[in-house]
């Protein structure tokens, strides 16, 4: 949904104190510091270059926290309160956003924004929408009365691209693009599961003519109307609602939005388009237990995937099944160092097992050999 005068209603605060290992129940408060009104330390051109934040620390050079300078946009329908910088913390490699709603409907939400603005490219986050659990290894209870959001935003929705999950409708992510507060295209994406119960990968690919929305690596929705053009700050927030129409009626208590990582890949790197999965820069995320499907051919000879080792590391196996003939390769984080290859010939399943380091990133390449094969690729073992 649009955030009318949203950034005018918050003062972003840089995080001068690291929040590393701060428990979600007692996060470190962050002192305020002024930055430019448009929410960026450099209000000129979009920033080039890929990055990924695994939240081993809270990067004060990338992120700023929000604190309400006056009434936040969500404070209506009986709700009062503010954005609370102390409701943002990092714990055990996860970003934790906390929402507190009291019985009298006074509330404290959580929000952070990149200091820099970014333009066309691929935006991705792996997160678990709001529930009562602050522990990534334990499930909690989702309930009505909140919105978990991963989005970009600038200048009263001159650009706004969203993935948003309502507390009252946790099997759906709302995927939309805004060019102004009145020119937009928003639609529901069914997840087929309660998004507050597990981590899922949310992504959009933004070009000058289209925005494509993905959930867990699968294209779910595309829009070619009202495509925004202005560079924008990348943001995450968790905020309360008290409406049957959006978010649901308030549920007093404390909830947590957990974020495993956030990444950005610009649409052009060194003059080469990077959004296509034909390059390592544009690789689609491959997760343990979530097979991906695709097709390669003489005119589209390769697809790339990225996987991340779990916190323990160890042995990881990637498997490829196809009706005709494709080969399988696994690469180190540089996308160039070959760690393993399987090329058994037509209609044979391929499998590569490699040793992986804790929390390290690896790349998988599916390579066309003959025919026009569709395929399924999967990962298991020490993989997130």
UniProtKB/TrEMBL annotation:
Read off the Gene3D superfamilies from this record. 2.60.120.200, 2.60.120.380
Pfam hit, one: Glyco_hydro_16
Cite the GH16 domain residue spans from the record.
35-270
Q: Which InterPro entries match?
A: Beta-glucanase-like, Beta_glucanase, ConA-like_dom_sf
Active site (catalytic residues): 160, 164
Q: Which GO terms describe its molecular function?
A: hydrolase activity, hydrolyzing O-glycosyl compounds
Where is the chain membrane-spanning?
none
Q: Which UniProt keywords apply?
A: Glycosidase, Hydrolase, Signal
Which superkingdom is the protein from? Bacteria
GO BP terms in the entry: carbohydrate metabolic process
Instruction: Give the range the annotation lists for the signal sequence.
Output: 1-24
Protein name (database record) = Glycoside hydrolase family 16
List the source organism: Deinococcus maricopensis (strain DSM 21211 / LMG 22137 / NRRL B-23946 / LB-34)
